[in-house]
Every structure is written in C-alpha cells, then in structure tokens.
Design goal:
About 35% of the residues lie in helices and about 15% in strands. Helix 8 packs parallel to helix 11. GO terms for molecular function: 4 iron, 4 sulfur cluster binding; catalytic activity; metal ion binding.
Length: about 300
C-alpha cells in the first residue's frame, strides 16, 4: 500500500524548499490585478457578472460609421468594409445604467452630436452618458455645448510621428488639446483610452500615461488588442508582435508601468476573469483576441 505524501514534504525530500517553487512575478501580477479598480466606463456593464452566459455591452447611440482616422487596428473600419456597421440609432433598452455615444465611427463628425446628446439627457435622465471619441475634432466651443458624464479619448502614441503611423491622420496635437479640455473640466470623468500593441506602442504606453496625467486626465483605460482578419497585414507592416499581443502577462506589465503615472485600469470583463485565476495561471495565460468582424448584440430601439 503506497504512502501519500504532501507536495511540500515531497519537495523537501528532494532538497527543495517549497517557497522556491513559487513564482514571485506571478504573485506580483495577481496582487496588481486584485488591487485594480474596474474602469468607470465598465461600471454597470453586464460583462462584470461572470454568471451571465451572454453579456452585452452598455447600450449605445450610433451616429455615423464614418471617421476621420484610419487606424491600423480599428474594428469599426472592418465593420464598414464588410457591410456590418450598425445604422444610426439607439441600440439598447429602457432604464439603462449607461449609454455610450458611440461605439462605431467618430461621433463628433456628425452635425447631430449636440442634438442627440440633449435628447439622450432628456430621455434617460438617470443614465450615465459616455462619449467615446478620437478627440481630434473637439474644440472649446463644441465642448461648451456638450453634456456628458464621462469622456473617453483614444490615444495610442506619445508622438506625432507614431500617432500618424497608427491613425493615418496628422492630428496628434488636436487629440492632446482635447485631453487638455476634458482634463481641465472636473465636472466630467476624463479617460484616455489606449490599445496595447506590443512592437508598435508598448514603449509609448507609460509616456501616454505621463502625458495624460500632466493634463489632469483622471484615468487611463488600457485595452488588449482584438486582431481582425482584415487588419492583420497592416498590423504586420507596423511591427506588431502577435505573440506578445496575446500574452496576459505582457499586457498587465504594461499596465503596471502606466500605473506609475496615472490611475490605470483594464477592460472590466477581462479584469473580472483575471481575478478568478491563480497566480501561475494568470502568469502563463494567453488571450486569443482574434475575430473576423465585430457584431452588435443589442437590438435597435426606436426612441
């Protein structure tokens, strides 16, 4: 009859103290994940509830699929090319916790942005209104006409040259100015939204965090990259490290670097999952972020 031995005793019988088998970096990553707060934008989202088998994003009001940027990673561009971009309108339900304007295209292109903003405020007075924009068209004059609770401005580079490479638009200074405008208005929650693209912008991420903090921006929302098939060649040419783009460890290490400068947060649905992982699983996990085309899971509703 065999004798069962605890793994700690077995390790010692082999001349190895159990603590040597631990991974210090894995423990640090796990502690970092447990200390992170959910992004303000994600609060109230179904994706934070892991018991929900089919969560959907907050409702959104889509204004236009058009954009003045042509980003090398953009899901909205893919949706337009495949004829899958949503038509303008409200995608959601009654009594929403939050509404995003908008998840496709650049909403500030639309001449209806102020009108729609006011209509949503009147129609859903208890909902948090989030604006998702590349920021390049935001001016002081327009800002005075808008009424949002949270503004997410996309910035994936810390220099004009790198910004041009990623967005194919020479708008870096305009985006920085938009961060300055919303960062200076403490009646609104200001967020810089950055996509982790190792090999392209990993060295920029702490610089973006430092820049945003210097402009009094409240939060950085760091998001992993979803690689859509139509963008693969563009990302290759830009230098994306595809293996590291799927590494949870590398993603979290980038967030840790940014944390030195700003209140950094990671996608809420990802954070909810990472918190359930043990340190070693988290350390070695891969996020397979591949897709053909994005899809809106919410129904279009007439307001």
């Amino acid at each position: 009859m065999g004798i069962k031995m605890r793994w700690e005793d077995f390790a010692r019988s082999m001349g190895v103290e159990p603590q040597i088998l631990e991974n210090r970096e894995a423990r640090v990553l796990k502690e970092f994940v447990m200390d992170l707060k959910f992004p303000t934008h994600c609060q109230g989202c179904q994706g934070l509830d892991l018991s929900n088998p089919n969560p959907v994003h907050h409702p959104s009001y889509e204004l236009t699929p058009a954009c003045n940027h042509d980003c090398i990673f953009c899901y909205s561009n893919v949706a337009v090319k495949l004829g899958k971009a949503p038509k303008p309108g409200y995608y959601g339900w009654e009594n929403p916790y939050a509404i995003t304007v908008s998840q496709y295209g650049e909403p500030l292109i639309s001449p209806r942005i102020v009108e729609v903003n006011r209509m949503l405020r009147e129609r859903f007075p208890n909902a948090r209104l989030d604006l998702q924009t590349n920021g390049s068209l935001l001016t002081e004059e327009l800002w005075r006409k808008l009424d949002f609770d949270l503004v997410m401005i996309s910035l994936d580079a810390a220099s004009r040259e790198k910004h041009l490479k990623i967005t194919n638009a020479d708008t870096f200074e305009a985006v920085v100015n938009a961060l300055r405008i919303v960062g200076g208005d403490k009646s609104v929650r200001s967020v810089v939204r950055t996509i982790f693209m190792p090999g392209i912008n990993d060295e920029d991420i702490p610089k973006i965090a430092e820049l945003a903090a210097s402009l009094s921006v409240d939060e950085m929302m760091l998001q992993p990259l979803t690689i859509h098939e139509l963008n693969v060649e563009r990302l290759k040419r830009a230098g994306l490290d595809f293996e590291r783009a799927e590494s949870v460890r590398d993603f979290l290490k980038a967030a840790m670097e940014a944390k030195e400068y700003i209140d950094v947060r990671i996608s809420g649905c990802q954070l909810a999952v990472y918190r359930t992982m043990d340190p070693l699983t988290l350390f070695s996990a891969k996020r397979v972020g591949r897709d053909v085309a994005p899809a809106v899971k919410r129904e279009k509703t007439k307001l």
